[in-house]
Design brief:
Belongs to the sigma-70 factor family. ECF subfamily. By secondary structure, the chain is mainly α. Helix content is 66%, strand content 6%. α7 crosses α9.
């Protein structure tokens, strides 16, 4: 895979990832450039291209860690253990792609039939419980539960038809791969 293709596909997401962890916008852009320099120099060593995204995020996390270590040395300050633990926890939390994949849900929900879309929007993405949904729609509670459950199933079908999702033992998304070029999930 060429570096230019990787830049086009991932630079925006990686920059956003970095900006959430670095206060300075300029530093974030510098880190992104450094990340892509490292990617360019070592992309040929990647044996499994299906793991490219997780590999790139690992390079990015390492670059952010290096940034903080360099900053601490430059300022003559030692990093505090609590600060390091917090940085590690933030990068571990961010290493999964839960937020990215959950961001696709609003687009996927729009593709559902009206009755399922409404049920999901009001309960899963809204503030109503299933009993309140039943009252609002004038249907039985079991009917409301069925709509929500079917809506969930349809969302899962749409998502899994479009993308292969890899999760860790805790259920966190750690990688995804589009199954076809017509996949619109990561465009949401």
């Amino acid at each position: 895979m060429k570096t230019e293709e990787l830049w086009t596909r991932f630079s925006t997401d990686l920059l956003s990832f970095i900006q959430k962890r670095v206060r300075s916008e300029f530093d974030a852009e510098d880190i992104l450039q450094d990340v892509f320099r490292k990617i360019h120099l070592s992309v040929h060593t990647l044996s499994d291209e299906s793991k490219i995204q997780s590999w790139m995020y690992q390079i990015t996390r390492n670059a952010i860690t290096d940034y903080y270590r360099t900053s601490a040395r430059r300022n003559g300050a030692e990093t505090h253990f609590d600060d390091e633990i917090e940085l590690i926890e933030e990068t571990e939390e961010a290493s999964n792609l839960n937020n990215l994949v959950s961001g696709w849900l609003s687009c996927i929900v729009q593709d559902l039939d009206e009755k399922y879309r409404e049920a999901i929007l009001l309960t899963e993405l809204g503030v109503l419980n299933q009993k309140q949904l039943a009252e609002r729609l004038g249907i039985s509670v079991s009917g409301a539960k069925s709509r929500v459950q079917r809506g969930r199933e349809k969302i899962k079908e749409i998502l899994l038809a479009c993308c292969h999702i890899e999760r860790d033992r805790l259920g966190n998304v750690i990688d995804y791969q589009r199954k076809s070029v017509s996949c619109n999930c990561n465009l949401c």
